[in-house]
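User: quick one - fold this with molybdenum atom bound?
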Amino acid sequence: MHDFSVGRRSFFAGGLGLVAGLPSSGRTLGEPRRAYGERAPAEHAKRFFRASATPGTGTSRTPLQDALGIITPSSLHFESHHSGVPDLDPALHELLVHGLVERPIALTRNELRRLPTVARIHFLECAGNSWQLHAGKTVSGVQESHGLISCNEWTGVPLGTLLREVGLRPGARWVVAEGGDASRHARSIPLAKAMDDVLVAFGQNGEPLRPEQGYPMRLLVPGWEGNVSVKWLRRLHVTDAPAMTRDEAAKYTDLGPDGRAQQFSFEMEVKSVVVSPSPGGRLERRGPHQVSGLAWSGLGRVTRVDVSLDGGSTWKEAALEDRGLPKAFTRFTLPMRWEGEELLVQSRAWDETGARQPTREELVSARGLREGPDGFDHYNGITGWRIARDGTVRHG
Ligand SMILES: Nc1nc2c(c(=O)[nH]1)N[C@H]1C(S)=C(S)[C@@H](COP(=O)(O)O)O[C@H]1N2
Ligand SMILES: [Mo]
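Assistant: Sure. Structure tokens for the protein plus molybdenum atom:
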């Protein structure tokens, strides 16, 4: 049983250096103004990816270990591209809305912006995020195991508004969204979701989408596997049935233990991870520390997060920096003290549907275990980081 109590000892007990007057700072003229800002030169957080023969294809991961708050900077939003980032001219690129609609239409980004817009904070998570943990692999850190997720403020037109504007014809049941990249990436979305909270987004964190996030417009399908949020959106085809595209037939169909595949598993279920401390970081000194992490659920709000320091024997409820945002990051924190002992730090989350984040054992017994990355989508199990006596942090 671990003693979580921080007691009355101050975070600064033991002294963090004696005060010897004001730190030195120059009195020379500072740097000039800038038309477009840059971060401080001493800050180096960056996306991670391995070099490959086709650099446009593949993923890059968000450095969650460096994340502050719940918003991922646009420049650090993870990427997943099937055929690179297309160079689309916003004046020429059009979104075609057709099929079972009364008034087919083609819209540029600026024409789309004439419709009423909303701004919403949502996470976006690739279905493959954390597959290594399902497979039982040891990871270098939270960027490798969880970095295929980011959380941004997205500005756009609700897809329901756009569909009402063009008018649905009888029999309309699905919306097939197609991207303007070379792969013509396409996914089918049931009409109920399309009319609920899907956005045709053109804004990200207060400015136009970054090219890698789908400029000039993309779908943002809150809470669902990232693959459905079609980037560089060029076509919305309203149909009576799913299109059975490559990415919903050959891919993104979860295999069960009996080898049969589930056709659609859209929702990203409740999940959490400790980002501090996490591998690569280190507890520098004994005494009070803070455990901090991120929790999310594709089914709504996170209602509770527990933290364990002893590998799951005892748990304590963490504080939520809760802004009540559904399908968004929730930051959790818990004070702890460390006196040089070995710890195994874990978190587990609940969402408003009552679902609890499962253990790996629960997931493996429900879904089975296969070799290789295929078949390991939608892993949301509990993760643990080990703290060694010297304060270093590692996985496994
Ligand atoms: N047109 C298009 N849309 C796409 C993709 C793509 O390759 N092409 N990748 C999908 C996948 S697999 C994911 S996880 C998300 C990632 O979005 P992001 O790159 O903005 O993080 O976009 C989805 N939308
Ligand atoms: Mo993805």
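One thing worth noting: Residues 80, 126-128, 226-227 surround molybdenum atom (ligand 2) (CB under 6 Å).
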